[in-house]
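Researcher: Batch entry, complex prediction.
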Amino acid sequence: MEITWTSLDTWIAVTAALAAMSCALPGVFLVLRRQSMLGDALSHTALPGIVAAFLFAHWMRVAGWWDEVEGGSFHALLFGGAVLAGVLTAFLTEVIQKIGRVESSAALGVIYTSLFALGLLLIRLFADNVHLDAECVLFGTVETVVFNTLPDSDIPRAAVVNGCVLLVNFTLLLLCLKELRLTTFDPALAESSGISSSLVHYVLMAVTSVTLVAAFESVGSILVITVLVAPAATAFLLTERLWSMILVALLVAGGSAFLGHWLAIATPVLIFQPLGFTTVDDTNTAGMIAMAIGGLFFAAFLFSPKKGVISQSVQRSLLSFRIVCEDLLGILYRLEEFARSDDAIRIPTGAPGATIDPRKGLSGKLLDRLAVWRLTRQGYVEVTETACVLTDSGRSVARQLVRSHRLWEAYMAKHFPLASDHLHEMAHRVEHFLDGSLREEIETELDGPGEDPHGRSIPDEP
Amino acid sequence: MSERSRATGCRDRSLKPFGWTGWKARAFSGQRSSRSRLFSCALLCVLLIGIANPMSVNAAPALEHEGASLSRADIEEESKPVRSSFVRILTLQDHTTRTVLLGTMLLGMSSGIVGTFMLLRRQALVGDVVSHSALPGVAIAFLIGEMVSPGEGRSLTWLLVGAAVAGLLAVASTSLITKFSRIKPDAALATVLGVFFGFGAVLFKVVQEIPSGNRAGLQHFILGSASTMTSGDVSLILKASAVVLIACFLVFKELSILCFDEDFASTQGWPVTWMDFALMGLVVAVTVIGLQSVGILMVALLITPPTAARFWTESLSRMTLIAAGIGGASALAGTAASATIPNLAGGPTIVLAGSMFFLISLLFGTKSGLIGRWVQRSRTEHRVGRDHLLRAMFEVIEARLGSEETLELDQLKTEAVSLGELTRRRSWSGLRVSRLLNRAFTDGDVSLDPTGAWRLSATGARVACRAVRNHRLWEIFLIRSADIAPSHVDRDADFIEHVLTPEVIEELEGLLARKDPRVIPPSPHPIPPVEAR
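Model: Structure tokens for the complex:
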């Protein structure tokens, strides 16, 4: 069996992408407001809302007051039910939290599990009347949704619905950007400038509910939480500005829909059939979309340029390598200085005339050996049989470093009441981060000191 | 100002964490020796195994045939009418029913206990993540089982191991994400939950497409169904819950210190990270055991019972016991109801039973239930209103007589006060004054003569004298010791006069020249007379 991608697959992916993107918009604000789990709760409680609306419609039909079966107003009723349930969840959580003095996450947990259980029970009890399949609600059926197209075209109805929701969400975002931004980042300022943060909160909840319900058909009630929060969380790892976060979240959501559907087609062929499960020829697209977003999130978690775990550790080890190299240079400089003078200042490597073994570096650790190699490559150090010797360029770099060190010691000694044996440690750290202009400033501040507090001369700027 | 906040601050619940000092003293003074702990634990072990073992042994042979399920269908077949089967269940006549009920009850109890600690650590929703992310574990365990020996993948122990591994992985990844990136805990929880559940959805679809997968009944792990469990499943659940229960009992002290003072624990040399991990392990264990009977809504059993228990008590050990009781009771009620009433799914029913208990606790809880708090508040309001009213009457009379001398009780009782005077005295609305007067009339503090004039009764006069005295003592204290201008002390004293204890009064009396309790000091600030109309 091969991996085939037809125009139907494109429509499935487009529908899912639109659904995911429309969810990602409110998701950005949920993540920023630290209410992601409220989104989870809403995605659960929309179920009882839908079921209740369904039963209400059924009851009206039985009573003969309404004969709409599948039309627009029927769907509007379902939407209404879900939105009501969503707002009710947010409201009840707040009420329980306030009057019951319960911790917010516990209040949320109590409310949404109760409502979700109620919805499940209603489905089960009225299963004969309601054509609602719990599993279908949970996992979504984007694969079959695309067969329900607009008349005389290939465009799936769900794609149109989700596209409209995306547009509406975007328009709302543009209209209420100021209010949203203010209540999200500085609720106190918002309140004092007359913007009701609770109103914004409830509007956000209502919009989130509508979006969730629209996306239900495509991605299912529980997976909605993934497309709601995970793209925004991914974007949160990658950017610092609100607008770029929104854009990245949209990109992640849309991209992972395509990636997820491709994976759903490809994994049976690539993974499950080789494992011996030959009957498997299809997997769940919605689940795969969730996994695709998960993969992107994980990638951002590891490799995000500024905040990724791996990029940060790479930066850290590069820095520590630079420090090791500079320390080596500094010690070589001090050894030279020591050999020139007859002043018996003790230096870290011990006896007078000590040299640094080119095969070991300072301590023989890997990083030290690497440092010797790197300094040789850079031309700062020349290696002979038994010793490392500074070259001219190396000496000028080392001189800057030692100058930074001693200037900082002098500066600390002047301005802080520290014992002279406490100065070295601090200077040892700071020396790597002082540049020429800062050294100059310190020098003018100290009126051109000739010596550091230990009585060693401060070398001139090379 | 600071005096007031000190006096009222202790009423703030947040400042009084569960009688912490007493608990700490008990836990670390070694009064409760480890030997007695071990002994009581051993007793519990024997008890639980004693209950669990004969049942599973007895139940197993009876139900060993293929696909034996303790379904309500069976029960209904045996005794057709629902009512009689309900009676059978309630009176525990069936072995099988008894095992199911006992199993779910133990599960509810252990989740109540574990949930208490999660609630106190403000990590209640972690259970949600665990229950959702156990699904891929279940499916992978099934698939591996099928690969190793086709047709044998559905062994509950094996599936639960898979679920537990996945649950632990999910919890670990949430804490790693929060630790190593700037993602906040809520977003980390939601992301991990969604991604794991998505993985689960994919794998469940795969499982369904395997010939043996359709019959495996894995979908029961999503919504839970106590009625399709086999006797082997039930006894496994029973034993696992018993083990969790005993484990909770053994590490109770360690978990409590983890919840209340993590820093203290780590300075005392406790391995806090490992303790945290152990707590997560317990959460995962409880959730995974409950997956088959309750499903992904298992988180409700972790959150609702302890939250409900919080309304009844402020002591940790009592809260744990009550949470265990509520958890067990809701599991019991839910299972019993779903076994008797057709079409009532087990998981949701258990959750809703728990919600009912929550509602009851929210309303009637003795420590912070709404009704209890409302009664207490209205009592306080009554007392405060009475003091204010009687003091206002005193001040009206005092200003009218304008005497330099202290008022005598007889003078207080003979002078009449009109409603209008009181209204003007304290910027009260007429409605409020008449309500206060009616209340005072019922209490016998005041009397009304036909002309519409109110007079203090003997008790009323005494209470009025006490209220005025307390008020002025505090005013004098504020003026002399806190350097507050005499024109500003009235409102402050207004708040504090009702809560002054006799000891404080005695201390305040040191400010006076004459300590005679009958003497009421003159007001340190002028009280403007109210002109009678």
